[in-house]
Amino acid sequence: MHHPVQILEHYWNYTAFRPLQEDIIEATINGEDVFALMPTGGGKSLCFQIPALAKEGICIVISPLIALMKDQVKSLKNIGVKAMALTSEYHYNDMSIMLDNCIYGKYKFLYLSPERLQQELVQNRIRQMNVNLIAVDEAHCISQWGNDFRPAYNTIVHLRELHPSVNVIALSASAKNDVVDDIVKKLDFIKPKIFRQSFERNNLAYMVFDTEDKHYKIEQILNKNPQSSIIYTRNRRATLELNNYLEQKGFSSTYYHGGLNPKIKTLNLSAWKNNQKQVMVATNAFGMGIDKADVKTVIHINIPESVESYFQEAGRAGRNGNKAFSIILKNSADNAQVKKQFLSVLPTIDYLKLVYRKLCSYFQIPYGEGEFNTFQFNFNDFCKSYKLNTLLTYNVLQALDRTSIISLSKQFQNRTEIKVLVTNNQLFGYIRKHPEVVIVVKSMLRTYGGIFDYETKVNLKIIANKSDVTEEKVVFILQKLEKDAIISLKSKSTDAQITFLAPREDDKTIHRIAREIAQQNDLKKKQVHAMLSYMKNDDVCKSIQLLSYFGETNPKTCGICSVCVKDKIEETTIENQIKKIKQILKNETLSSREIAKHTTLNEQHLICVLQRMLEHDIIDITAHNTYKLK
């Protein structure tokens, strides 16, 4: 047993804990059941990692996100701690070996999804492990009232049966009071120690700006704050479009979304984290496990789907304690758009049944079979094949994933299948005449034995490595072989991987989850309406609105949000600006954007002054939407 501060200093080079961390760690080491409610960036992972390192044995960590598991395992390995993540990419034999390593190999952390925990092999091996702590990350997923509810989380309590004397720590960055109560009950806590760190961020200014030209407003923000930024967009296409726009305007920008090749993801993320790129334009696939302290601005160009998701994404700004900004840009079209995107595409039970049947047909799964079978999945091809609405179908897949019917992993892959169409003699006669293909063909033949008999899935990277050429060169040679009728070549891109977690039983499968789906649809509606209310409310401090949503009592005004800043405009300041604008409009009519160039006012303040001038009949709006003196 080592003192927690010694462990902190030895592995992380810190000499002191953040607020609440030490109390949480002490309670966990003392064997208490602990619930830690801490905002994004509050240092939740150390609250279970240090207690686990302080004791003999291994810590079981339950997490819903593969990317987050891999990121934490990588971080632990980098500091010399043995850890592994048992993700869906591993098959039965791999799992068996890995679990044995956890029993005998002095590993300190085993990361699992709740779905993996349901497997008998996993439970049997965990029973044999010297478990010193059970950590439940993203614990709000266990509650039917929580954001991203996952029924598979209900199986976590079985860990307590496997190791009844081991305590549990649950952690979340966004949980309301009813969610906390539900988590404590479902994890069978006895006299739990509940630690709540205030969600207040004194250095973070929550801003909501009403603007019809969002791209121009982004330019203004980035020019004023040229430090590291994240811009969240609605979808992959919008991510690419905004990134291209910013590059054309001279900003240093990159992008990130779930469909990117892993190599490109890594390159783009590295460029942004190392400040080679100022701006990361991303979908909400970006963020979990991304710890960058110097983010100055987080901008949402579209309205987020819930206060919970917004609060987590906003919290990625200003982790170094310096003043930072979380900005939402809205306009007149946003209300209708957010309802269309999040409410009109909530799946009905009938549509769930339809998509599930089509999914089973797509992968040719017989009735009663398919459990734990994994397939590469091209989402657009699937929707096109059955003429399905893409948004509605995507939400169905998400619902099936949350309810543990399938496991959906977003990852881009190229799938290549080859069959040799000629005889062995004919093939070698061909390569004698075309020596440029020899090394690739021989590498392929020595790696894939059945290639003459049936269409064989090949790994281009393996062939390229064996041939000592690039993957592009391999593709070029394969295309030549296909053109010359030597092989058949099928290339297919996939953007996801699906694992069926339950056998196919068609409507029976969906009936089991129908009540949960209806409940989640109702919760989604409430979350969207809460987010819209936050957007509309320009009378109450934005920080107070957020803190009240999460159950904090008597929060104080922040003094730096868009509401507080607007309220700070003094009459004398307005009068001075009115005089200045009157001078600017003396000889010409100008738009609000042109007026802004001649003043130091931000957009919110300028609108306030112009409204005052209109109310007092000092100016008029022309037919061309410009302003002129009366």
Structural overview:
By secondary structure, this protein is of the alpha/beta class. The protein has five domains: 4-196, P-loop containing nucleotide triphosphate hydrolases (Rossmann fold, 3-Layer(aba) Sandwich); 204-332 and 537-558, 3-Layer(aba) Sandwich (Rossmann fold); 341-412 and 497-524, Orthogonal Bundle (Arc Repressor Mutant, subunit A), CATH 1.10.10; 422-485, no CATH class; 569-629, Winged helix-like DNA-binding domain superfamily/Winged helix DNA-binding domain (Arc Repressor Mutant, subunit A, Orthogonal Bundle). It is 46% helix and 17% strand. The chain contains 28 helices and 19 strands. The strands form four sheets. The protein has a seven-stranded parallel beta sheet, with helices on both faces. Helix 5 (92-104) links the parallel strand 3 and strand 4. Helix 2 (21-29) runs parallel beside helix 3, helix 14 packs antiparallel against helix 23 (514-536) and helix 19 packs across helix 20. The longest helix is centred in the last third of the chain and has 23 residues, at 514-536. It is globular and about 90 Å long. The N and C termini lie far apart (80 Å). The model has no long low-confidence stretch (mean pLDDT 87).
